[in-house]
Specification:
This protein has strands at about 45, 55-60, 65-70, 80, 85-90, 100. By secondary structure, the chain is mostly beta strands. It has one domain (about 20-100). Strands 1-3-2 form a three-stranded antiparallel beta sheet, with no helix packed on it. Strands 4-5-6 form a three-stranded antiparallel beta sheet, with no helix packed on it. The chain binds zinc ion. Zinc ion (ZN) binds near residues 65, 81, 83 and 84.
Amino acid sequence: MTEPRPEESRETDQDDSQERPRQRFVLEDTGFDEVPKKYRRFYRRWDGPSDILAPNEVLCPVCRLVMRSTRELRPGDRLYCMPCMSRLIVGVGDGGRLEATVHYE
Ligand SMILES: [Zn+2]
């Protein structure tokens, strides 16, 4: 069994070809230390409602950490939250913000 990666990127981006290309982001280590070092840059702590999330960030509804992607997130994207081992799917919440919900296989 292979470990799921924090970002389960699709093998190809073919189904995105009709859409605006996704913005890419360079992630920096924010000091989050609850996952192995190579995955630290994919998470950061959330500072509460005043903490505005970037287009490549979404809040994990389970552990309330901000998950970060190297590319812009869109509804339908699947993510794996390593700290709480939740499989999440990105949707649109109140006010049009991206919001992750737990996804069950
Ligand atoms: Zn989580």
